[in-house]
Amino acid sequence: MAIERTFSIIKPDATNRNLTGAINAVIEAAGLRIVAQKRIRMTKAQAETFYAVHSARPFFGELVEFMTSAPVVVQVLEADNAVAKYREVMGATNPANAAEGTIRKLFALSMGENSAHGSDSVDNAAIEIAQFFAGNEIVG
Ligand code: ATP
Ligand code: MG
What we know:
Layout: E1 3-10, H1 12-16, H2 20-29, E2 33-40, H3 44-50, H4 60-67, E3 72-80, H5 82-90, H6 103-107, E4 116-118, H7 122-132
Antiparallel strand pairs: 1-3, 1-4, 2-3
Bound molecules: adenosine-5'-triphosphate and magnesium ion (MG).
């Protein structure tokens, strides 16, 4: 297995409830290393670009509204097989379907307010990381 990087967002429902540290503890316990991290307020343009793949979906407006409603914490996570590993650690998109011990099972409020984002492929991880981090902000 190769060392990979994935992109993570701790979403507004989680920062609102002061859960950044609790989520980071789950991430680190799973063996993912947080090699970059910053708390930002996403702009509407950033959120629309980030979720452009969902622009035709009925929930797109609500999604952009939510992602810009409060601060988020953007992160780069590193591990063997980081992309798939973090998807497993996050759990299913809908918390009702998420496995025990996953971030979404532990913390998510709903399908929309689901506490975390993780890239769905290595290629998308590289694209998403570049949207929020300069190379010299990532220290592995
Ligand atoms: P993410 O991309 O945020 O990591 P995901 O890959 O599990 O989540 P996607 O299908 O990419 O899920 O959807 C992106 C996000 O859009 C979801 O995390 C969720 O916040 C929101 N979303 C997806 N489907 C719905 C829906 N039916 N209703 C409301 N929000 C939704
Ligand atoms: Mg996705």
